[in-house]
Amino acid sequence: MLAASLFPSLAAAQTYRDGPPPQHRVVYRDLSLFRLNPIGLITDAKITYRYRLYEHQSLALRDNFLAVGLAPSLSGAFARIGPTVEIQPATFLQLWATYELVSWFGAFNFLQSFPSAAGASYADSELARRGDLPSSDPAKNYSSTGTQLLLGANLQLKFGPIAARNLLRLGRPDYKLREGDRVFYDIYYDLLTGDRGWFYANDVDVLHQSYGNQLSLGLRWSTARSFYNDSHLAPGDAGKAVPGAIHRIGPIAAWTFKKPDGARFEPTALAIVNWWLKSPTRTGQDVSQAFPYLLFAINMTGDLL
C-alpha cells in the first residue's frame, strides 16, 4: 500500500483469528512511514464500514465483506483524499478501488513535470537543482491539483508458517500540469508517469511467521512501470527510448503487537531493506546501487464498531 499504496496494510492485522467477524464492522488503518532512496515521510490511512457477505467457519472463506469508506493520505509534498470501495469474497482475495482528489503543495521539489517521456531527467540531484531555481523560472517545481483513480487486487495464501501475498495497484492520474508538459515525476511510486496514462505497482512477499504469527520475516520483490502513449511524447520523440520498469528486492520484517479480536488499537512495526535491481536513476546513474531502499513504519489498525 501500495501501492503501497506505496505499502498496503498487513491484511492479517484486521482478520479475526478466533472465528468469523461480526456482520457489521467499522475499521481503520493508518500506515505512517519514513523511507530513504527515494526520501519520504508519509501517513496513509483508510477508514471503512464493512458488511459481512456470508458466515463461514473455514479460514479460507470466513473473512469476507463489502466495504465503503474514506482514504486520506498526507506528506510534506502532497495531500490526497477520496472514497474507497472494497470487496473481499474470501479471506485470500480482496479487490478495491479509490478515487482521490490530490493537491501538490509545491514543496520539497515537487510537483515537477516535463514535456516528454523521452529524455526527461528526474534524478534526485536534478530535482534538487530545479527546486533551487527562482520562482520565475519555468523549470522550477510548482503547486498543482488533480485526481487519481487507483484499482487494486490483494491475493494472500498461507501454508503452515509460510505466507505468500501479491499486492497489485493500477493507477491513472489526471493533473493540471504546467502548459506544454505531458509527464510528471511521482515521488510516491518513484515513477515518471504520463498524465492521463496508466501505471502499475506490484509487491510480492514470501514470509515465515512465528511466535504466534506475531513475527514475520521474509523477502519482498517490488516492481512498477508507467505505460506511455503518443500523447506523452513531444513532437519528434516517437521511437525514442522511454523509462522502463523498475525493480528492487530485499528482506522485510514485521512484528505485530497482537490484541484480542475487535480491539480498538493493534500496532505493527515494519522494516524493509531493498536493493535496486533496475532503475533509471538508482543503479549508479545518480545514486549508488549499493545504497538500498529503506523503509521504517508503524501500521495501526483497529475496530471502532
Q: Main sheet?
A: 14 strands, antiparallel
Please identify the oligomeric state: single chain
Query: Which stretches are poorly predicted, pLDDT < 50 over at least 5 residues?
Result: 1-11
Distance between the termini: 24 Å
CATH superfamily: monomeric porin ompg
Rg over C-alpha atoms, rounded to the nearest angstrom? 20 Å
Structural class: mainly beta
Tell me the fraction of residues in β-strands, as a range.
over 45%
Shape: globular
The third-level CATH topology is: Porin
CATH hierarchy, class: Mainly Beta
Number of folding domains? 1
What does this structure look like?
The chain has a single domain (2-103, 145-303), classed as monomeric porin ompg (Porin, Beta Barrel). The chain contains one helix and 18 strands. It has one helix spanning 124-131; strands at 2-5, 24-36, 40-51, 65-70, 73-75, 78-81, 83-90, 93-104, 113-114, 144-159, 162-175, 183-186, 191-194, 198-210, 215-227, 246-256, 266-278, 293-303. The longest helix has 8 residues, at 124-131. It is globular.
